[in-house]
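Sanity check

After download, print the first record. It should look like this:
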Amino acid sequence: MTFVVIDSCIRCKYTDCVEVCPVDCFYEGENMLVINPEECIDCGVCEPECPIEAILPDTDEKADDWVEFNQKYSDEWPNITLKKDPMPDAEEMKDKQGKLETDFSSEPGEGD
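Expected structure tokens:
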């Protein structure tokens, strides 16, 4: 089992999760985070830290399409291990549906 970040993270990018990860397996895109499924040790400490429930175990039905997505972008984006402020419009965006189609950016973030 591994954990993955889903589209709820897009344009929110809360980073509480990266601060608690013991293996530093989070990677930063311009407007979301992903987890490297090969580096994740399945400890689960990140999951309750996400205020918008954007982190799921890969056994959850909603996570089905996200393992490959997380792998792809964790190979392309820089590692992030330090907490940062969420995106400026995170509060307004947290409940928006369909963000992958309308708001996702494949550009890398800054990392640490």
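If your output differs, re-run the checksum step. Summary of this record's structure: The chain has a mean pLDDT of 96.
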